[in-house]
Amino acid sequence: MNVRIRGIYATALTRRFRAAGHEVVQSSDPIEERFDADLGDGAADLAVETSRDRQGVGLRGDPESVETGRTLLEIERDAFRWEDPAPFGSIHAGVVEETGNGAATVALGEGRAGYLPFSDSDEYVERGDRLRVQVIEPTPPWADDDPRLSTSIRAPTPGELAALVAGERGIDAPDEETAGLVDLLSVDLPEGWGIELGSSARGTSLAELERALEAAAGLAADLDVDDDDIDESEAPRRLASPYAGAWCWFGRESRFALDDVRREVTPTMPGHHRIKTGSTRASDAVDFVEAIPDCEVREFPFDAVAGQFGPGEGDTLAIEHGKPDGRLITLGRGEVIGYDPEGSVRVRREMTPGGTYDALGVEREAGDVAITTLAEGRWWYPTVYKDEGGRRKGTYVNVCTPVEILPDAARYVDLYVDVVKHGDGRVERVDDEELEQAVEAGLVGDELAEKAEDVASSIERGLS
């Protein structure tokens, strides 16, 4: 299959997909230079794009291509993959739930909602309206924002080399020369659809452009759903899906494994992908270091990275608690009160009163504080809860994928099983059943679950 790859993982994934026998197309100039090859400019069967927060990648294409791509993204045991219930190009009979701040929140069905900017709507929108919308920008399950919608309907190719636009006329192209190529093609295009050519169409061959437009034309018939066809009693629901979609989140082990793959192609410092995940500034610094001839970094430079980009003492750090089903829960933000250049920080959070602490069974009271110690790359972290007078109320040790300490947040995926030490010294292991259920549901792999159980057993022995 033809694959289009974009973002900070492009070099490593290009190497991985090519090694599996797939053709990589529409590559950037740096990628072509690194591989010293003409990688092709044709239409893509599968698009692989880095998520906006750089934590992972999204896939879109036909179901078979997406499944093949998902398999190739099994980098290490801490790579998690999920299907997208609102994939790119999908059309929904939506119900407007809220309006405000220049956009409407639209229920799409299957537990998903999207946001429709008023600028992307052909008509006035208010609460309770039922309307046909299309996903134009999907979002990963761990993101705070919803997929972006439009009331305009497009029939795109996965890599957006070409698309047809319902209700439009003419050709929208990067330049007149590219637009003129359409006259040389023998594609039977449907009436009432305009042509939109992406920037990658510039310089592509006639055969590949024809292939892309034929694919778009084939989709147009399936996507031609009128507002009048929406049965109000069945909304919200999905009306059509031209493509399948999936998301993959890379854990710390997977990012370092991708470093190894990238190193087969071009000089790559340890922690290349881990550092680039942190911020744009950090990403630029990595490029600078790797561009210096004979500049060799032998191990992941945590102190240098944190010293330049954070976190440091006095900074605010969020604890981002991922779940194996793709959700992301921010446990809170606290002040960094301790920093170890070897790769750990201590974070102090002031707790709000009310309820009890999970598994500890003690009340959350005014004046309570939580002191969390987070170590880069460790499979667990402890939080000590203290009352206003400094008396220890208990310790909760969370077992998780290797912790990554980014400039603004510490991040990991929770592996359910945890160990607690009560105020009276009693040690208890909890939530083993939740881990077993996650394995049965296919959310956690056997190897990862075995690692979590081993870590929990070690902690339990250490605290007893």
| Count of β-strands | 25
What is the CA-atom radius of gyration, in angstroms?
25 Å
Gross morphology: globular
Lateral strand order in the biggest sheet: 17-18-19-20-21-22-24
Q: Within the CATH hierarchy, at the fold level, what is the topology of the largest domain?
A: FomD barrel-like fold
- Average pLDDT number: 92
* Sequence stretches where pLDDT stays below 50 over 5 or more residues: none
User: CATH homologous superfamily of the largest domain - what is it?
Assistant: FomD-like
Short description:
By secondary structure, this protein is an alpha+beta fold.
Keywords:
alpha+beta, seven-stranded mixed barrel, FomD barrel-like fold, OB fold (Dihydrolipoamide Acetyltransferase, E2P), 464 residues, six-stranded mixed β-sheet, 25% helix, 11 helices, 3 domains, globular
Describe the structure.
There is one protein chain. The chain is of the alpha+beta class. It folds into three domains: 2-86 and 246-263, no CATH class; 91-153 and 226-238, Nucleic acid-binding proteins (OB fold (Dihydrolipoamide Acetyltransferase, E2P)), CATH 2.40.50.140; 316-463, FomD-like (FomD barrel-like fold), CATH 2.40.380.10. Helix content is 25%, strand content 33%. The protein has eleven helices and 25 strands. The protein has helices at residues 10-19, 29-35, 63-72, 176-180, 206-223, 252-263, 272-278, 280-291, 302-309, 432-440, 446-463; strands spanning 2-6, 23-24, 46-50, 56-61, 79-83, 91-100, 103-109, 112-117, 130-137, 148-150, 154-156, 162-166, 171-172, 193-197, 237-240, 244-250, 316-322, 328-340, 344-350, 369-375, 380-386, 392-400, 404-405, 409-422, 427-430. The strands form four sheets. Strands 17-18-19-20-21-22-24 form a seven-stranded mixed barrel. The protein has a six-stranded mixed beta sheet with strand order 2-1-3-4-16-5. A hairpin with a 3-residue loop joins strand 23 and strand 24. The protein starts with a strand and ends with a helix.
